[in-house]
Amino acid sequence: ALALLFATAASREMIADRLSLAIEAETAMKLASEPMLAAIRLQWWVEAIQKASGDSVPLMGRLLGHLDRGSLASTDLVAQMELWQDRLSISPEDAPNAMGDCWANCFVALLPAQEHAARQVGRALVDPDARIGDEALGLLATAEGRWLWIIGMLVRHRRRSGASHDDPLMAWRMLGWRFGFRRPSSPTTNR
Questions:
Q1: pTM confidence score
Q2: Radius of gyration over alpha carbons of the chain, in Å?
C-alpha cells in the first residue's frame, strides 16, 4: 500500500483497485481447499465485471466507477482475472513459475511501456530465484513507474538483508529510496 504513494495522483486509485483485484484472485487461489472452489470465486468476479453488477462489494463498486468513467475497460479486468483462472488449469509441477507469471503479467498490464522491467518485478515478488536487474529498476524510476520501482526495491531489500516482513524501519527506508538518501556503502539505493 505504501508503494502506491509513489504512483502519480491521477493513476493511484485505479492502480490500487487493480492490485486489490489481483490480491482477491490470489486469495481465492490460496484459501480454497480445492481448485473448483477457487474457480467459482474467480468466475464470480469475471461475471460481476462483465455484467457490471456486484456493487455491494466495495472493491467491485470502485471498479464499476472506473468502468463508468471510461478509465478502465471491462475486457482489461476480465483479462486480468483470466491470468489466475488459467493458472488453475496448470499443475504446479508443470509450471512452477505460474504464480510469478500471474503477477508479472498483471504488472505489465498496469505499466505496458515498461514491460520487461514490470515482468522482472512481478516474478521476483514471488519467486526467490528471480532477480531484478539494475537496468529494470532504472527504467521504473520514472514518475509513471515509481510505484513499481519501490516494490522492486522492497523485494531487493528483503532478499539482500534477509529482513523479515516486519522491518520497523521500512517506511524510513522507502522515503530514503524515494528522495535519494543512502548510506555510502549501500548499492541497493542507487537509481
A1: 0.82
A2: 17
